[in-house]
Specification:
InterPro entries: Glyco_trans_2-like, Glycosyltransferase_2, Nucleotide-diphossugar_trans. The protein is of the alpha/beta class and about 325 residues long. It has ten helices and eight strands. The protein has an eight-stranded mixed β-sheet, sandwiched between helices. Helix 9 runs antiparallel to helix 10. The protein is elongated. It binds uridine-5'-diphosphate and magnesium ion.
């Protein structure tokens, strides 16, 4: 068992990989001497990432490169790496070097001195990200912490250091829709924040376009909260009160001998009610779709091949 595992999910990161390998190696040596491993997971990249990883694995015995069968998404690629790593301490980092690997040493020191099981990075600032990304991320983390019962820290990504027992607890959770930063918060133990400034991407562009961001946010919300389902009962209550008021108004108007105007108000009510009902149905659909996905119990990811390191048992017997 190495003292330290560094796990990195990679999707189309060919321009980052050589620099990533160099900086991770430096940071790992600094923190753990020679007793470490680096696990790079290729999440179905369509560029030359896998070829570079294979080359790196040939030249560095401490590097294990895992090739998934296709693009499974950030959280599942990360899960594959976490399943396959063997270290006593596990350091999770993105491939784009937005989170400085050099913080590893201080994070390890915090873990030891505080006897913490998790030391998670908290973004004090975010360089090189669009105002749109910063605003949506800001809103998302705050909405999430209001909607959920689990205390999910705000402005925290997957950049973190974990103990083996915290990782084992995480890996015991079987769900398909994985929001790992929330799942880690759920397991408990002592978890310490570690504020840092997020840099720009080393190279390339974000691998989280809007569609992926929305799916990620929905996974987080539906995975950690049933509060949206209660919106239906709130809407129902509000509409009931509204309809009683409307009945009273109509009764009053008729008794005063006035005609109640027809078409416009009628259409308005039909359209508003229809919209609310569709919205609630769609919301229920989100949960049902996820239930369906979970019920199928498919494997979380498929490994195609592994380069470097010893063969290690994973979930699928690789
Ligand atoms: N990533 C991945 N699979 C995907 C999308 C992203 O493995 O389908 C990896 C990506 O290579 C990076 C990390 O997840 O290491 C975070 O992605 P990115 O930096 O593009 O996200 P951002 O920082 O822009 O939110
Ligand atoms: Mg990034």
């Amino acid at each position: 068992m190495p003292r330290l595992s560094i796990v990195v999910p990679c999707f189309n990161e060919e321009a980052c990989l050589p620099a990533l390998h160099e900086r991770l190696t430096g940071a790992a040596r600094d923190a753990a001497g020679e007793d470490y491993e680096i696990v790079l997971v290729n999440d179905g990249s369509r560029d030359g990432s896998w070829a570079i990883m294979q080359r790196l694995a040939e030249s560095d015995p401490r590097l294990v490169a895992v090739n998934l069968s296709r693009n499974h998404g950030h959280q599942l690629a990360l899960t594959a790496g976490l399943d396959l790593c063997r270290g006593q301490r596990i350091f999770i980092i993105d491939a784009d070097l937005q989170d400085p690997p050099e913080l590893l040493k201080d994070m390890l020191a915090t873990m030891e001195s505080e006897a913490a099981d998790v030391v998670y990075g908290v973004r004090r600032s975010r360089a090189g990200e669009t105002a749109f990304k910063r605003a949506t991320a800001h809103g998302f983390y705050r909405l999430l912490s209001r909607a959920t019962d689990v205390d999910i820290p705000v402005d925290t990504g997957d950049f973190r250091l974990m103990s083996r027992r915290a990782l084992d607890a995480l890996l015991a959770m079987p769900e398909q829709a994985r929001f790992i930063r929330g799942m880690v918060a759920w397991i408990g133990f002592k978890q310490m924040p570690f504020p840092y400034d997020r840099s720009e991407r080393f190279a390339g562009t974000t691998k989280y376009p809007l569609g992926k961001m929305i799916r990620f946010a929905l996974d987080a919300l539906t995975g950690f909260s049933s509060a949206p389902l209660k919106l239906a009962s709130h809407a129902g209550l509000a509409l009931s009160v509204g309809s009683v008021l409307l009945i009273l108004y109509i009764a009053y108007a008729w008794s005063a001998g006035r005609n109640v105007p027809g078409w416009t108000s009628l259409m308005l009510i039909v359209v508003v009610l229809g919209a609310i009902q569709m919205f609630v149905l769609a919301l229920m659909g989100e949960y049902i779709g996820r239930l369906y996905n979970e019920a199928k119990q498919r494997p979380l990811y498929i490994v195609q091949e592994i380069a470097g390191g010893d063969p290690r048992p994973g979930r699928l017997g690789y």
